[in-house]
Amino acid sequence: MSIALAATFARRELRGGLKGFRIFLSCLALGVAAIAAVGSVRAAIEAGLSREGAALLGGDAELEFTYRFATQAERDWMTDTALTLSEVVDFRSMAVTGTGDTAERGLTQIKAVDEAYPLIGTVGLEPQMTLDAALAGQDGLPGAVMERVLVDRLGLAVGDTFKLGTQGFYLSAILTREPDGAAGGFALGPRTIVTTDSLENSSLLAPGTLYSTKYRLDLPQDADLAALEAEARATFTDSGLRWTDARNGAPGVAEFVNRLGAFLVLVGLSGLAVGGVGVSAAVRAYLAGKTSVIATLRTLGAERGLIFQTYFLQIGALSLLGIAIGLLLGGVAPLLLAPLIEARLPIPAAFALYPAPLAEAAIYGLLTAFVFTLWPLARAEEVRAATLFRDALSGGKALPAPRYLAMIAAGLVALVGLAGLFSGAWRLTLWTAGGIAGALLLLAASSLLIRFASRRGGVFSRGRPRLRWALAAISGPREGAASVVLSLGLGLSVLAAVGQIDGNLRQAISGNLPDVAPSYFFVDIQQSQMAGYTERLENDPAVRRIDSAPMLRGVVTQINGRPAREVGGDHWVLQGDRGVTYAEALPDDTRLTAGDWWPANYDGPPLISFAAEEAGEMGLDLGDTITINVLGRDITGTIASFRDVDFSTAGIGFILTMNPAALQGAPHSFISTVYAEEDAEAQILRDLAGQYPNITAIRVRDAIDRVAEVLNGLAAATSYGAAATLLTGFLVLIGAASAGTSARTYEAAVLKTLGATRRSILISFTLRAALLGLCAGLVALGAGILGGWAVSHYVMETDFAVIWPSALSIVAGGVVATLLAGLAFAWGPINARPAQVLRARE
């Protein structure tokens, strides 16, 4: 059997042009383009973060400490290593204007800097001036700069004064650009910049206050960052330092971009799967139209393999063309839209043509084309020559030969494996693949059920000839009910699942959470202030509940004498510092799941009560030892018990609780939550902030609003990916409607001959499209709700309730989409002359 001969036949077949393959090419190109565009934008952001790593970080390297300033030995090492050293103190506090009942307060993220800040880049101020001049102050008060959103919230203007703690400040300028802002990650309040020296009398940096210090290093040009990191960690072992350098200047942003990009690529794969349905339908329709050609070849002695190779090569060439179009669109579109994208991004991006994401998209496209075209190609090979002259493909076997099934399975495994490898999110990839496979199986079964129900629906259509015609057409093999339900249904399923997940997450955060969450978090309460603080709240009838606990921050450095990450992996508990508290007795609302609480007045070796769920995820057992670095001091304790910790209520929850003697002598403050009536919240804040200006109040509703803003961006990005999937499904729907034009033309001719009017035939076509769209929408709704429940329940661990507005819009969308596609191809069959159609049919 000659490949050259098959190639010759394939080349001659392609001379007929792209007729019949426009939908094929569109589906493949759109799916590849979506994945290529997402990958290109992610690569541009990663390149921007890498290129501007030092600027984002504010230096070539950064050493961060929690709750403390660097020791003299640490400062000496940094001074000897760096050309220039800059110290930054970062914490939250309240900015206050006015006095008494007329005072206005706003949560702000304070950055206290020295004269060397910023090492890299410039601070943008309005009116224009240097940062040194702005922070010098006026009228005997130190200067400050503040973001406009907080200035407006407090009703300030440049030249006004405000307080941080007990210290007054002069507002010298509006902060318009913070060169190292992206490295700080998510913040609950707008930024205010002051000098560290000006906070000396503010009472905001007292022992135990929640703050972190960051030391930025300007290094020699030939500095080896990896070697310096290793030296710092070895020199100051278990000091609790965290190292970041210009190789990844904004690690939180980079991780977020990677995860979001991986998720969007997986959404794009869903769109490619929808396109695969269209590709398969297009190949099947094309081969059905090649009945006479294939029959002639078989009659002349062509073997099955030669026919398969001929059309495999032809479809392969067209697949390469579709993939090339998709790569061109996906690579060029981000370049053309770069100004718009950059304007929306808070971080730098370097837009260019990146080979890696384009290659990834091409591989996905090739595997998808292979998997979805192999089935119809293989079935065509099995059809005997005598049956090829009439209804070729429907007369073959239901399944292709086992070798082809094995090849299809191998292609699917490769597709899922490469998706997991490229995205790095194996769990999410498997969930996505399982969801797509489950949805396809559900939709395929539903299409069979729809055809069966249509055949049995005659009892409901008695006396309704138009409905009877519609049901008869749906139940027939030529209407393409399977293609409509599979393509449109899968696209709608993805959109429905995204809508349900997004709606439930928003509802959990902004709907249900305020009902169970506290009104305020108060932090940095000094031990000497606790009595007066508690007395004020306990005597207020509007206060329902007060929870308070001592608060320290510590870094888990070792588990059972080994580096913590070797045991617990990349678990979130081990990423950065965590809250640590102590308690003498077991709190009333705490339930132990294993082990025992320490006895009263226990003063033996340190003991730990650990959160049960997180302990299970990290593989911890009773009796394991954990080393926590608190203020540069290592404390090693033994796990004595596990307990339930519920973080879903936004109340106080600590992963680690220790016996009081274990933390004796460590300076610390207290954290407290207050549950009060909403109309009493303002007065509570005025009283406590007026009496204790060092206390920071975080209003939970404001925090929820900040999270909701982030969710808006995530939902928009995800919706764009789902919309691309739906657009692909609509293209497949158009292809199915186009492929059925011939059958509908013959049907209309027969009905006209029997006396049916054009109006009746049009109504029948409309009913047919609406019923198919309704069925596709209902099945997609079921699949989407099921997928949304699974993600909400197992991945996000939130309650789930059907978001009916989103659900009903999915059903309506299915009906509208099929109506538009069906009616677009209905006019030709309706206007055709019966005599010409029936004579041609003979």
TrEMBL record:
Q: Which Pfam families does this entry report, sorted A to Z?
A: FtsX
* Keyword field: Cell membrane, Membrane, Transmembrane, Transmembrane helix
**InterPro entries registered for this protein in UniProt:** ABC3_permease_C (IPR003838), Membrane_comp_ABC_pdt (IPR038766)
Q: What top-level branch of life does the organism fall under?
A: Bacteria
Membrane topology classification: Multi-pass membrane protein
GO CC field: plasma membrane
Annotated ABC3 transporter permease C-terminal domain residues: 267-379, 723-829
Q: What is its main location?
A: membrane
- Bilayer-crossing regions: 260-287, 308-341, 361-380, 401-422, 428-452, 769-791, 803-827
Write out the annotated subcellular location: Cell membrane
Tell me the PANTHER family matching this sequence.
Answer: INNER MEMBRANE PROTEIN, MEMBRANE COMPONENT OF PREDICTED ABC SUPERFAMILY METABOLITE UPTAKE TRANSPORTER
Designated name of the protein: FtsX-like permease family protein
